Fold this protein.
Amino acid sequence: MRLVMQRFPAPQTVTPTQPWPLHSVLATRQIEQAAQVSLAPHTLMQRAGLAVARLALALAPHARTVWIACGPGNNGGDGLEAAVHLRAWGKRVCVTWLGDPARLPPDALAALHRARAADLQWLHEPPDGLTAQDLCVDALLGIGVSHRPPSDQLQDSIRALNASRATVLAVDMPSGLHADTGQYAMQSIAAPAISTRAESTFDSKTEDQLVYIQITRGVAMRDHVMPVGITPTVFAMATPMKPASAAARMQGVACVTADDFRWEKAHIKSTSLLGAVLSRQISADAHATETVMFRGDYLSEAASSNVWVVKDGAVFGPPRDHLVLEGIRYGLIQELCQAASIPFHLEPISRAQVLAADELMLSSATKEVLPVTTLDGQPVGHGKPGPVYQRLYAGYQRAKRDSATSASAA
């Protein structure tokens, strides 16, 4: 996996004491039309479909079946695009589509062609047997609800969504809810009790954001046995990205060492961060950037980073095992080394090898790859960022640009 830097709106606190303007249906359509002018054909719908698919995967990562109910217009096109992605990611995807190819808007027609080429299960009516572990995607109407009586097939799909035991992800808004009034327009159908909304298909021109998504097993009564059949809890937040400073990259950073006193399942990323917090506090108290940890006489990792040793032009890292939390940059560092013809090895690294390193580097989401030039007050190598770091950092920036270009072209 490669880190792709994208731009998102800065987070804002919404409080009941402060009024917030909402876009009307007309204003929303005008925003969409303005965005389409500057984009290649079908791009906006493809972005929306990808955003829906990603959120669906976050909401129900263990869903055995995903039912996507697609309406006759662009909302249905968003659902078809999402179906293509979810099937490509290995999900069993069932699609009910209520449209007429002869009356489809161009974007939705293109999405239909892509969906028909994918290995999807097409149904004429809502599927039976969905459980609480499955997922439904409501891509029927979105903001396109009208006061005209819906077709019988559309009413059946909305009733099935509202009655389903599975989580329902509504694209734009639950079908039948009028965006301008907030009233439920389907008089013959009971309004849904719960809804989820997928947003942000437009690029913002604000500063780069760090997007954090946390998924837990779910909420249950206190016990020491992991329950089954509960709904996972999904939490997401965005905060301004704070990359390493230019000075840190030019001069390197200072680190300290400590014993790795954490438990022996360090490869599991959990919400229990006490060990990492205590470890990082050691370096904070020493006015250092990170705490490089050792289990016995061998390198494990840093409090919130992976650690890389450079010796004689080769890059060495601890092996992938239960004692190291393998960051997504593990694979990327290996790819960058291969692209730059830098020898790469994963093997046990002794404390003596770390102290004798020519270069020492950290990697993480925010640090990317960062040179360590001082360890426990002693210089690492020549005491300045080395040539291997310079090549890997340059390669990292190329990888980001390539990923961003590929994402924009998709």
